[in-house]
Write a structure and sequence with these properties.
Length: about 140
């Protein structure tokens, strides 16, 4: 089961990376982990993005990190606001960096690195808005079956 892949310390480190990345941005980052992905990984990431209502951020600047651990598939999905702001190959570059960690069995470190990279771009294009900025989406990791 996907939820057992990460220890409580791993989960805490990932959540702390999300919180740290979001400190300097109005953007939102979420992580969803499940065991299997029976369809195309990007199609499944879109389903999860919709299920988590990530499209409801004010600036359309949500980023989803989706992992199907048993099937060894993952995707990064940015909403329209962030996709318009980052270079065309941005998500692919992050995926390559994460994949090298995943191949070494370093799932937590791979996620943290991806989250940090996304956070830097979100901070550049969607800086923190002070008192008017609220955390629009939960920072907790969500798990599927």
């Amino acid at each position: 089961m996907a939820s057992k892949l990460f220890s409580s310390a791993d989960r805490e480190a990932i959540i702390n990376a999300i919180k740290s990345a979001e400190v300097a941005t109005s953007g939102e980052i979420q992580v969803h982990i499940e065991s299997r992905c029976k369809i195309d990984v990007l199609d499944r990431a879109v389903e999860v993005f919709d299920k988590l209502k990530m499209y409801q951020t004010q600036d359309r600047n949500g980023v989803l990190f989706y992992l199907a651990v048993t099937d060894k598939k993952f995707a990064i999905l940015g909403d329209s606001g962030i996709n318009e702001a980052v270079p065309e190959d941005f998500w692919e570059n992050i995926k390559e960096q994460m994949a090298s960690h995943f191949k070494a069995g370093e799932f937590t470190q791979g996620l943290i690195e991806g989250i940090n990279q996304a956070g830097k771009q979100l901070g550049t294009h969607f800086p923190y808005q002070g008192d008017s900025d609220i955390n629009e989406l939960p920072d907790e990791i969500s798990f599927g079956s």
